Amino acid sequence: VVPFEPIRRLLLALAACGLLAGCGEREPLLVFGAASLADALEAAGESWRAAHPEAPVDFHFAGSNDLARQIAAGAPADLFVAADRERLEAAERADLEAARALLGNELVVVRSHDLPPRTVSSARDLLAFERIGLADPEAVPAGVYAREWLASQGVWEALRERVVPALDVRANLAAVASASVAVGVVYGTDAATGSLGASVSVLYRVPASEAPPVVYWAAPVAGGNPAAARFLEYLEGPEAGAVFRRYGFRHLPTEPEPDGG
Amino acid sequence: VAETVRLTLFTLGVAAAATAWILPPGIAVGWALARRGWRGRSAVEALVSLPLVLPPTAVGLGLLLLLGRTGPVGGLLHRALGIEVAFTWKAVVLASGVVAFPLLVRSVRSALEEVDPRLLGVARTLGRGPAATFFAVHLPLAWRGVLAGAVLAFARALGEFGATILVAGNIPGRTQTLALALFQRVQVGREREALVLAGVSAALAFAAMLLVEWLSRRRERTLER
Fold this sequence. Notes:
The structure holds two protein chains of two kinds.
Chain A: H1 5-23, E1 29-34, H2 38-51, E2 57-62, H3 64-72, E3 79-82, H4 85-90, E4 100-105, E5 107-112, E6 132-135, H5 141-152, H6 156-159, E7 163-166, H7 169-177, E8 183-187, H8 188-191, H9 194-198, E9 200-205, E10 214-220, H10 227-236, H11 238-246, E11 250-251
Parallel strand pairs in A: 1-2, 1-3, 6-7, 6-8
Antiparallel strand pairs in A: 3-10, 4-10, 4-11, 5-8, 5-9
Chain B: H1 2-34, H2 41-53, H3 56-67, H4 72-81, H5 89-113, H6 117-125, H7 130-141, H8 143-158, H9 162-168, H10 178-187, H11 191-224
């Protein structure tokens, strides 16, 4: 008579669901990678999975600054590939003694195909645009590199008010590709990858002489899965090197950076 | 498609777990607030309602400070038991539970208040103790309202975003729910996929609200009788 049974049943059902959600957990290697590595690292991971079915690997991509903060707060990462050295160090738990300079990249100025074409032949030419899309120049490596480039060319102060900051470089590319901003600065590899890359044109490639070198650093995370060191070794090897080159990265372990670059 | 199904199941699972863990404290607090004449009732009421009106990101930041490796609770759990909470599914369950908590408490409170106090008096005069009166008479009579509150909290937990992204991140396959996946798809320009996820979220939310409506309609009828 007393309708208490439904409540008990609901509680039981909820508890069962909660347990199921918990039991769904598996523990493959978890690699935190800079957003710009999304396609290339996935591809390298594919060939790793084929050769090492015993050591599955998962990826999480976001701005390196976000990843560093998450790792410092205890996120269960095993390996961190950051788009600059500073973010690797900010992760606090990255094993800096085992850190490797893994990849090189370049900055490019891009604009949507849907907008009328414009020419940019120097940083100064960006002053002609009302808004400019950057990954957040305060924190995201792609934005920090871009800011350093613009500062070295003496136009940062004039441009800083026009910056539309994005959470990471891929979000910035998406904003440019959808013509939400007239022009943006991303990595050369972003502009060459996927449907977003295909919907923008490169107006200007920032020469090495104008900007700091873009170097991706990788390091195992302290207390993580020991297989991380093996996966990092694989990323340094020639097989992964070929994958990264296919996506337009410079693979530093097999092709050292020229001195004074 | 497989990815959407997996995301949906994960989201339903964590929302259910979130509802489950807040149900006992939610009923307790709702009961306390339904009782009149104690000091500080309004303050507790306001405190409990805080997650309803605070920016969810503020709630998330608070939880992160508490549960991170360097936080008082997170640090203790990590050192003593080796348990990580921040940036795992546990953080998703906690965050969405905290944000949904006020909705549950409010429903429980009004459901308990609607029960005719004479019935409770009768139970007491017939020799039931306060606990027995509550579990055998008061709660059962209010069950539709409690259930509606639980479903409402569940629906809120389904869509939780702000607190979750701060304390649990947006890690595919580990902490990514429908709401977080939707955000990530928009960020990287995969708008078609984002639209599908938005559609799934809307369908789930609609079903949950329909259930809440139906339960409260039935409740009104019960009360009129």
